[in-house]
Amino acid sequence: MEKGKSWLGMALFLLLAASALWLMRSLYESEMRDPWTRDGLVQADLVLVASPLSGTAEGVAVRSSAEVREGDVLFSVRSFDGRERRDVRAPAGGWVVESGLHHGSTVKAGEALFALAVRDSFRVVGYFRETHLPQIREGAPARVTLMAWPHRPLEGVVESVGRGIERSDGELGPQLLPRVSPTFDWIRLAQRFPVRVRLKEWPPEVELRVGLTASVQVLEADKAKEGR
Question: Among 3.40.50.1100, 3.40.1440.60, 2.40.30.170, 3.40.630.30, what is the CATH number of 34-44+121-226?
Answer without folding.
Answer: 2.40.30.170
